[in-house]
Amino acid sequence: MEIEGRDGDVSDDIGYASYDKLVKIGLYDNYDVDRISHFFSGTGKVTFSNEPDKYYESEITEQIDFEKLVNFRTAVVKFHTQPFKYLVDEQPVDTNITEEIKEIKVVNVGFEESKPIMTLAGKDTVEISVNSHAQFQINIDDGCVTVNSRLEECYKGGTYNLKNHNMGGEFPVLQPGENTIFL
Questions:
Q1: Closest to 114 measured CA to CA, from 55, 182, 45, 175
Q2: Would 54 be classed as within a structural domain?
Q3: Residue 121 has pLDDT above 90, yes or no
Q4: Domain span at residue 130?
Q5: Long-range contacts made by residues 63-71, C-beta under 8 angstroms, separation at least 24?
Q6: What's the CA angle centered on 101, arms 97 and 106, to 5 degrees?
Q7: By C-alpha distance, which of 31, 90, 34, 89 is closest to 63?
Q8: pLDDT at 101 > cutoff 80
Q9: Which pLDDT score, from 0 to 100, does residue 142 have?
Q10: Which of the chain's ends, N or C, has fewer CB atoms near its CB within 10 Å?
Q11: What does the alpha-carbon distance between residue 168 and residue 138 come to, in Å, rounded to a whole number?
């Protein structure tokens, strides 16, 4: 953005935007148009053939051109795609924090910050920091609480049971490379 009277531009970092990804499909042999219509609708995870180890969160926002599909046996599917891709086979880190073990090492293999989902079990209030900063406190209330940095929500059992009032501080993020989570 330019400001009159100022040298250079002012950069405004507003995050990454969603985008549309167009995919051409083709039909062969016998096909059921109703089944194809149902398959290419709604929201969910999609994996593309050029990146079989990754998935995207996407939504199909426009109906397929059925006349073209029936007559020419091809169509274009428009996926409205969220900006980040995720590993298909990513394994959760499962660790018990005890009096002896007060830290966990977690590796973010990506090139951008990651917004983790942490499920914490126990009782009372705990204080957690990531890489010695981004500290937050959470009252677990004798059970299990999920801190979802992507949604910026804290909940018990599901997003219908919000516990944001039990949390103080900022939602944690993981930097690219190795991160240390301290209790």
A1: 175
A2: yes
A3: no
A4: 103-182
A5: 63/37, 64/36, 64/37, 64/40, 66/33, 66/37, 69/27, 69/33, 69/36, 70/33
A6: 75
A7: 34
A8: no
A9: 67
A10: N
A11: 7
